[in-house]
Amino acid sequence: MSSFEIQAPLLSAKTLKSIDLFLEDYYPKASEAGEKISACRMDKTQVRGLENLIVSATRFSEVINYIKNQVGKEREKNKWKEVGPMLLSQLQDIEIKAGDIAGDNPMERLDVKLRLLRGWARQVVAHYLYKDRDEGRHA
Amino acid sequence: MTLHEYLKSAQFQAVQDEALREAAIRAAEKIRQNHAPVKRHQLHAIPSIIQGSGLTGLRDLAQKQKEKNSTTRNKEFWAAIDDLLSATSSSETSLFGFLQTLLLEQGFLEPEASAEKNTQKQIRKRNKTITEGVMDDILNVYFEHFNCHYFIKAQQGGSQ
To answer: For position B159, what pLDDT does the model report?
Structure first.
């Protein structure tokens, strides 16, 4: 549990709509990430680990750092190396979009980023599970 | 808002999420660019020492490591880490410098230049104490950003 007292601002209906619209538009890219994770045969526990981190993260950068750390591990057949750059690039898109939506208010930007992140993760993981099932790995 | 309240605020959390990350990335990139890469275990020592003994512990470690009879690359790496933490560093990637600028902008430090000559030294000392206190608080997050960026760059540029 974070020791921070998060005073998250109440986001306006317009902001919430902008978040939903972005996630709708971004769905094909998020699906592509899910498909790539499935194609490299990433273990389900790894994907669930990332998803759990995203749900509990209080900073957007926790997720970026987690992926960088996984990619940076020195081990043979590191599957994160295959998907990490794409995931980091998509997270960058999300961060830029959060800046567009929330503007200069740092608290609102953080809240928007985390909402976008969680929406994106739901899309990525859903598509990963769907593709993996298609391949018969989690039948 | 007091400094204590500021450090607990979402506003400061946003700083740790963005500006501090950018500062740590700049520092990691600069060290990677100017010095030969070190093995991962050198960096693994950092979070545990911060957890155990904070800024003092990390400074002691950096001092010891840079003077240790080790490889040149290790010595250079730890000298660079020591410089990041130093209050007298003139480097543009200094963590101390980054925090001083931030705290001055937020009004938690006294401007030294506009003060009378005979009080400047006292102000500098007070500012240093405040800055180091904040540094102690954010060290963990800063080195989370720093280490992870260093690791991924090591993989991309050929690890040691």
So the answer is: 43
pLDDT at B138 over 50: yes
pTM recorded for the entire structure: 0.89
B159 to chain A, minimum CA–CA distance in Å?
8
Q: Closest by alpha carbon to B14, among A89, A56, A114? A: A114
Question: Which of B15, B16, B151 has its CB closest to that of A72?
Answer: B151
Question: Model confidence over A64-109: pLDDT tens digits?
Answer: 999 999 999 888 788 999 999 999 999 999 999 999 999 888 889 9
* Residues B17, A72: C-beta atoms closer than 8 Å: no
Residue A61 sits in which domain range?
Answer: 13-134
Distances (CA, A) of A51 to A22, A45, A46, A65, B18: 20, 10, 9, 14, 21
How many domains is chain B partitioned into structurally? 1
Domain that residue B28 falls in? 3-156
Give dist(CA A35, CA A29) in Å, integer: 10
Residue A49, domain member (yes or no)? yes
Helix (H, G, I), strand (E, B) or coil at B30: helix
CB B76, CB B42: distance < 8 Å? no
Considering the domain boundaries, does residue A65 fall inside one? yes
